[in-house]
């Protein structure tokens, strides 16, 4: 807006008309005092100031404007009829004016000047505004940087306080921070600790996970620099996301060496115990079978039924010991798989028959939903039967009130999937991943149902060795579906 200051209303009127004809917004004041009041209140892009005014003259008004930060940069054009002499013009410029126009006014010249100053001032204002907002942004960023720095320091302090080795990496996998414990196992910040020659390579494993943006969890032996001893650690590296992108990684090495030693001793004990139990049990079984044959002629005798019951219990004991032996084989990497092209459909059929016959006292109903597998698949028939028996006996055991079971097969170009569905007690969501762990039993069911928690562990190892997958879906109190897949080739 332009402010015209003149004590002569006719001058104001004609000037106002002239400027408004060119679409300039105009405000007016008829004295220096009024002009000052308005200029402090409103924003003007230009002031056209008459020099001859009663009270404060134009020069005084202009000098006063220079004293206020709000008004000091507003360009002023002086209008004067009288003071055309050089010294007056000079005073006009000294008092803060930008131009000096003498009356009678040449409207075209005045308009040209007004336009130039008006545009200049508008640009100045815009520049000033953007400078202010830039300054604000810089200030904001500086503050954010300071607060981020203090958050990072706090985070690093917390990592220092951890009993584990802790470290962070950027999104490219470059180490950005390590706590003091790191240096018990590595000489350099950028170098992962040395791992046992038989264990996996941390860099390779991490690179694989980094590409997928997935967390890494690894049991690994790393060398303690003071003792030279390789100690078992659980390495965990997790991505930290920001706006759905991996921003950096945070990792820990937790010392699990003592735990591992106890576990090893337990495994060794189980292995020895199950081996030692197996031999006398085989003899007992043989003697019982002989006795059974002797008594066969007399099926009605009480002794005969006792022997059958004893043989039944011996069979259960036998399978328990076999499971324990399997566990020790897995622990020692000695579980061997003997793959041959086999008829999976026949195996499923025979296994269901065996289950039905061995559970004559329970009224189970096993439905088959079949997808035809019209060629032989390479697998170890004894081991896959073991998996299926485990799924089916679990389905029966953990469904005390409903003995309907559905066995489904599904085939595509790459694999066959076999599922066993029951309508039993189900497994809570957060415990489902753990059921394939060694000796894991779901707390809620472990009191009511007998078991050792190793059947599914063995199943998962068998399927792993077949390069298949194993898993489940389950809903508490509605039932579970356990499945495994086998590659067709
Ligand atoms: P076990 O049955 O001898 O305890 P498993 O390894 O076969 O051992 O199973 C591990 C655990 O998984 C079981 O203790 C049980 O809690 C749970 N589980 C397995 N199958 C089922 C099922 N069909 N329904 C509900 N829970 C199951």
TrEMBL record:
Domain PAC: 216-268
EC annotation from Swiss-Prot or TrEMBL: 2.7.13.3
Histidine kinase domain boundaries: 272-489
PROSITE patterns attached to this UniProt entry: HIS_KIN, PAC, RESPONSE_REGULATORY
Class of enzymatic activity (EC top level): transferase
4-aspartylphosphate modification, residue list: 50
Catalytic activity: ATP + protein L-histidine = ADP + protein N-phospho-L-histidine
PANTHER family tied to this protein: HYBRID SIGNAL TRANSDUCTION HISTIDINE KINASE C, TWO-COMPONENT HISTIDINE KINASE
Protein name: histidine kinase
């Amino acid at each position: 807006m332009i402010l015209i200051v003149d004590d002569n209303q006719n001058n104001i009127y004609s000037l106002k008309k002239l400027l408004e004809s060119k679409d300039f917004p105009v405000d007016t004041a008829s004295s220096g005092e009024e002009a000052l009041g308005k200029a402090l209140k409103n924003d003007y892009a230009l002031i056209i100031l008459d020099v001859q005014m009663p009270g404060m003259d134009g020069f005084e008004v202009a000098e006063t404007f220079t004293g206020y930060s709000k008004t000091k940069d507003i360009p002023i054009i002086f209008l004067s009829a009288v003071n055309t002499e050089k010294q007056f013009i000079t005073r006009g410029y000294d008092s803060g004016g930008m131009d000096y126009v003498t009356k009678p006014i040449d409207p075209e010249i005045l308009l040209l000047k007004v336009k130039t100053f008006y545009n200049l001032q508008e640009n100045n204002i815009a520049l000033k505004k953007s400078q202010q907002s830039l300054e604000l942004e810089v200030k904001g960023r500086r503050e954010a940087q300071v607060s981020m720095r203090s958050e990072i320091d706090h985070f690093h302090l917390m990592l220092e306080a951890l009993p584990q080795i802790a470290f962070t990496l950027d999104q490219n996998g470059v180490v950005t921070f390590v706590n003091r414990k790191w240096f018990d196992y590595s000489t350099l910040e950028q170098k992962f600790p040395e791992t046992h020659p038989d264990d996996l390579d941390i860099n390779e494993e991490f690179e694989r996970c980094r590409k997928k943006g997935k967390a890494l969890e690894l049991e690994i032996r790393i060398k303690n620099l003071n003792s030279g001893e390789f100690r078992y650690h659980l390495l965990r590296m997790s991505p930290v996301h920001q706006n759905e992108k991996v921003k950096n990684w945070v990792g820990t090495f937790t010392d699990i060496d003592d735990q591992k030693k106890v576990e090893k001793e337990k495994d060794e004990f189980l292995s020895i115990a199950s081996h030692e139990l197996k031999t006398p049990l085989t003899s007992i079984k043989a003697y019982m079978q002989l006795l059974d044959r002797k008594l066969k002629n007399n099926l009605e005798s009480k002794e005969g039924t006792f022997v059958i019951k004893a043989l039944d219990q011996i069979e259960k004991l036998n399978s328990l010991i076999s499971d324990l032996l399997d566990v020790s084989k897995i622990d020692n990497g000695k579980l061997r798989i003997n793959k041959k092209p086999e008829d999976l459909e026949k195996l499923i059929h025979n296994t269901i028959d065996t289950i039905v016959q061995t559970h004559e006292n329970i009224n189970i109903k096993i439905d088959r939903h079949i997808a035809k597998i019209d060629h032989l698949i390479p697998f170890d028939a004894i081991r896959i039967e073991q998996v299926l028996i485990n799924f089916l006996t679990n389905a029966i055991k953990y469904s005390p009130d409903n003995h309907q079971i559905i066995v489904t097969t599904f085939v595509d170009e790459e694999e066959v999937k076999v599922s066993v569905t029951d309508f039993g007690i189900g497994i809570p969501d957060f415990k489902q991943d753990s059921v394939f762990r060694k000796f894991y039993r779901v707390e809620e069911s472990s009191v009511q149902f007998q078991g050792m928690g190793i059947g599914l562990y063995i199943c998962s190892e068998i399927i792993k060795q077949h390069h298949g997958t194993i898993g489940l879906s389950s809903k508490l109190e509605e039932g579970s579906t356990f499945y495994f897949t086998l590659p067709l080739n």
